[in-house]
Amino acid sequence: MGWFERLQEGLTKTRQGVRDSLKRLVGIGPDPEVLEEVEAALLRADIGIHVVDQLMERLKSAGAQGSFEEVLRPVQETLLDILRPVESNPLTSLIQKGPHPFILLIVGINGVGKTTTLAKLGNRFRQAGLKPLFVAGDTFRAAAIEQLEIWGNRLGVDVIRHQQGSDSSAVAFDGISAAKARGVDVVLIDTAGRLHTKVNLMEEIRKMKRVIAREFPGAPHEILLVLDGTLGQNALAQAKQFHEALGVTGLALTKLDGTARGGVVVAIANELHIPVRLIGVGEQEEDLQDFRAQDFVDALLKMDD
Ligand SMILES: Nc1nc2c(ncn2[C@@H]2O[C@H](COP(=O)(O)OP(=O)(O)O)[C@@H](O)[C@H]2O)c(=O)[nH]1
Ligand SMILES: [Mg+2]
What we know:
Layout (H helix, E strand, L loop, with lengths): L2 H8 L1 H12 L8 H13 L4 H12 L7 H16 L7 H7 L4 E6 L6 H14 L4 E4 L6 H14 L3 E2 L7 H15 L3 E4 L8 H18 L6 E7 L4 H14 L3 E5 L9 H9 L3 E5 L7 E3 L2 H9 L4
Parallel strand pairs: 1-4, 1-5, 2-3, 2-4, 5-6, 6-7
Antiparallel strand pairs: 7-8
Bound molecules: guanosine-5'-diphosphate and magnesium ion.
C-alpha cells in the first residue's frame, strides 16, 4: 500500500462521518437540522472549533446545491486556504541551501515518534546525498540511547552518545564538534520527552538551545516538534506549550496511518501557522512524507467510490 492510501485509510472514519453528513445537504440547501449533523461530524473530525465555525458560515450561505461536488467545494477550499500557508519546501532542500552543518533539534513528549522520525529523516537525507549525524540527546533513558544506536547501525549513520543520566547539553555540544570535524551536512539531535517534570524538560531543552547557539551562532536551524496525530486536540495543546517555551520552527505529525483524529493538523495550522514539514505514515524508515495540503485535503474528503 502506498503512503497516500495509508493516510487515506487512517482517515477513513473521519472522512466517512464528514461525507455522510455533507451528502444530506445535496439538493436541499442549508437545512438547520442537517447543518447541525454536519457540525457534529466536523467537530468529531478534530479540525477544531474555529475551523468548524468558518466552515459552517460558508455552508449556511451556500444556498441549495445540485450535486455533492458542489457541497464539497467550499469545504475543500476553506481547508486548503488554511493548510496551504503551512506547506513548506522539503527539509532536504532547506538543508542543501542552508547553513553548514545544518543543526536540527527534535522535540516532543514521550512516545510521539521523535526517535523514529529522526531516523526516517536521516535515511532520507542520506538518500539525497547528504551526510547526517545522530546525537543521542535523550540521556534520560538507556533504552533511548540504544534505540538510536540501532537505527544508526541499520542506516549507516554515526551516533554521538554519552552515558545514561549525563547532561544532554554536553552531548549536543560534542555532536556539533564532531559534525564540524567530520564534514557532516546535517546534525539531528534527539531529546527527552518525559512529561512528569514538564518545566524541567523545557528548561533542559532551552539549555541545549543555548549551548548549541554558543557553539554555532544561528543554530539550531530547525526546532522540529513531533506530534502524535492520534492524540487529537491534545496535540494542539502540546504544540502551543512547546511553541511558547521554545519557538518551534517546524512540525512533524506522526501516526497518521492509524488514526481517526488526523484532522487536528487543520486546527494546528489555523491557530499556530507553523510550517508542517512532514507526516509519518508508518513505523519503517521510508514511512515519512513531505506534507502537501492538497494531498491531505484529498485524504480527508475524497473517496474512490
Ligand atoms: N504507526 C505508526 N507508528 C509510529 C509512527 N512514528 C512512530 N511510531 C511508533 O511510535 C512508537 C514510539 O516512537 P519513538 O520514536 O520511540 O517515540 P519517542 O519517545 O518520541 O522517541 C514506536 O513504536 C514507533 O514505531 C508512525 O508514523 N506511524
Ligand atoms: Mg525517543
